[in-house]
Specification:
The chain folds into 2 domains: about 350 residues, 3-Layer(bba) Sandwich (FAD/NAD(P)-binding domain); about 160 residues. Helix content is about 25%, strand content about 20%. The chain contains 13 helices and 22 strands. Helix 1 runs parallel beside helix 9, helix 1 packs parallel to helix 13 and helix 6 packs across helix 13. The two termini are about 25 Å apart. The structure holds flavin-adenine dinucleotide. Flavin-adenine dinucleotide binds next to helix 1, strand 8, helix 10 and helix 13.
Length: about 575
């Protein structure tokens, strides 16, 4: 149905002026854009989703999903020539011969690293929702209170209770597996059955809990269908098969992606127009009407510029690209970027500290093994600075750990003995990793290059983001407490590794267009609308006021559903 055709359904597009006019525009079709599209379309709005990359249709466009390693030229390893040409994306653990088609190559989309920043991107319908690790923990009241508690970054305009019903709403649709652990620091959600810890992980969990009664050890929560419900079957998704080859696209729809879930759901309403190969250049601001009226798009294939119009615009291009689009949206009213009266657009960018790994041996039962490739790990929710400020660093970190019995590694030998070793699992090994909060700072920022442009004529993004002393202290604390916990759990040969990786490789970048109560110190209000341009909404990572210790995407989804609900209520009121 055309956007202007109002005869077939009671949709709200009563004032359409031309074929490029919609009720709502969503920029980006990844995790948050997919949710915006689903919610807007279900509420009857004719919605245009503009996606800069190609279309990726669930099932049809997963060319490697069912291949064995022997079917790849290099058994899934990346050739050295590709790695040398693409040092940034090659550092991502999920980038290999079987998944490379869903990643942006460094060579194709340059940016300027004033300070090293590994910017990992997926430019296609579905964005990074095809590639993510799918770990999904709610934020707690403690996380939302972080800035107010210690005064670093501005206060969040919302608290846990504002978002809790929206977590429930998205969790039921997405399908999240987990235990109801009853913890304040990591609230429970709407869970499908959990994945099981293996025998060594259980052993470690119980020994840590005995030695440290105030620390919790629980199974990770993740966006996998362990027991599909009718709402998931209705999406055409089925049970997770524990293949853990998710980043190739899942032929079972066992994990949540925009491609398997929100985009086809939105499409079914008849209200979605999906336009791939549409690079959004900027938002159009009408000085006279005092509002945004649409977006300028460069067609990625023809290089033609086009404009699309709507009364409501959601920018969901993923954190840094959302910053880029808004910074590039200049007008006489907003010479420094849309809504940027405060001058803070692009500033207070933050990320998560992923630099710490700990490895150890464990003398576990050699007659025990585990089956399937579980898509999550046990975790220890944050236990630092909960009741009071007790360390020399601010905020805290959560910890993942896991135990496995790896086979022999390729560098361990050749010939018959090596072949034999490959056939049997080796001794138990334990690994532990950090996911730490970083403090948003004005100096950590992104901006537009003054002289360099991409091939669509859009200024390149300059990244200027770095660690600070707080991050170093937090990492040191993780190494010490993590090692102590593993020692208490009976591990031996404990070794700490500081990967020294650049910010960005955590792929949890947030901020630059933060929410807040005061327009002088924030860009967005409590409904994710721009203070100074309220028909433009930002609900991806760019809106985040602080980083918390949790993996962020389930919060982006909940904020998006909440913002759409509010925006459409207001839209209906103004439409009379
Ligand atoms: C390997 C990996 C593991 C991860 N693990 C986890 C995890 O366990 N848990 C978690 O919570 N998060 C995880 N993440 C992060 C997660 O993927 C992101 O937080 C999430 O995808 C962000 O959603 P988004 O909608 O903001 O962006 P995306 O999903 O990246 O979608 C943005 C979309 O916007 C499009 N776009 C960009 N610029 C423009 C433009 N100018 N015009 C038009 N379209 C544009 C892009 O092409 C893309 O499709 C992981 C990411 C990766 C890569």
């Amino acid at each position: 149905m055309k956007a202007s055709d109002t005869s077939k359904s009671p949709n709200l597009n009563l004032r359409a002026k031309g074929k490029n006019t919609y009720d709502a525009i969503v920029v980006g079709s990844g995790i948050s854009g997919g949710w915006a599209a689903k919610e807007l379309c279900e509420k009857g709005l004719k919605t245009l989703v503009l996606e800069r990359g190609r279309n990726v249709v669930h099932l049809k466009d997963y060319p490697t999903a069912l291949k064995g390693p022997w079917e790849f030229p290099h058994h899934t390893k990346m050739p050295l020539s590709v790695t040398a040409e693409n040092p940034v994306v090659s550092r991502c653990y999920a980038f290999d011969e079987s998944t490379q088609h869903f990643f942006v190559k460094d060579t194709e989309h340059p940016y300027v690293q004033e300070k090293p920043f590994d910017w990992i991107r997926g430019y296609q319908v579905g964005g990074k929702s095809l590639l993510w690790w799918r770990q999904t923990q709610r934020w707690s009241q403690h996380d939302f209170e972080g800035p107010a508690r210690d005064g670093y970054a501005v206060d969040w305009p919302i608290r846990y209770n504002d978002i809790a019903p929206w977590y429930s709403y998205v969790e039921k649709f997405v399908g999240i597996s987990g235990n109801r652990d009853g913890l304040d620091i990591l609230p429970d959600g709407e869970f499908l059955p959990p994945w099981e810890m293996n025998c060594v992980e259980k052993d470690i969990a119980s020994r840590i809990k005995t030695k440290y009664p105030d620390r919790h050890v629980i199974q990770g929560r993740c966006a996998h269908l362990t027991k599909p419900q009718p709402i998931h079957l209705e999406q055409g998704r089925g049970q997770c098969q524990a293949r853990n080859q998710c980043e190739r696209g899942c032929p079972f729809g066992g994990y949540f992606s925009s491609n398997s879930s929100t985009i086809p759901w939105a499409m079914k309403t008849g209200n979605l127009t999906l336009r791939p190969y549409s690079v959004v250049h900027s938002v159009i601001y009408d000085d006279k009407r005092g509002k945004a009226t649409g977006v300028r798009v460069i067609d990625a294939e023809t290089m033609q510029e086009q404009e699309f119009y709507a009364d409501m615009i959601f920018i969901n291009a993923a954190c840094l690209n959302t910053n880029l689009v808004l910074l590039n949206s200049t007008s006489s009213r907003f010479p420094n970027g849309l809504g940027n009266d405060s001058g803070l657009l692009g500033k207070f960018v933050a990320f998560q500290n992923y630099r710490g790994n700990i490895y150890a041996d464990f003398d576990g039962p050699m007659d025990h093994y585990y089956y399937g490739r579980r898509p999550t790990q046990p975790m220890i929710p944050n236990f630092r600075n909960i009741k009071k400020q007790e360390t020399d660093f601010l905020r805290g970190y959560m910890t993942f750990y896991g135990a496995d019995r790896p086979r022999a590694y390729a560098d361990e030998g050749i010939g018959g003995a090596f072949k034999e070793a490959l056939g049997e699992p080796g001794p138990w090994r334990v690994s532990m990793s950090i996911q730490g909060e970083t403090i948003p700072k004005e100096t950590n920022h992104v901006r537009l290059s003054k002289d360099k442009k991409d091939k669509w004529g859009i200024p390149l993004l300059v990244t200027s983001v770095d660690y600070d002393d707080n991050d170093e202290k937090l990492l040191k604390d993780f190494f010490q407490t993590g090692s102590e916990m593993l020692h208490a759990a009976g591990c031996t040969n404990i070794q700490t590794v500081d990967t020294k990786q650049a910010p960005g490789l955590d792929i949890h970048e947030v901020g630059g267009v933060r929410m807040g109560n005061d327009p002088k110190t924030s860009l967005l209000n409590k409904w994710n609308a721009m203070h100074h341009c309220p028909n433009v909404f930002v609900t991806d990572g760019a809106c985040m006021t602080s980083t918390g210790v949790q993996n962020p995407s389930i919060t982006f989804m909940a904020l998006t559903a909440r913002a759409v609900n509010h925006a459409v209520e207001e839209f209906k009121k103004s439409a009379g």
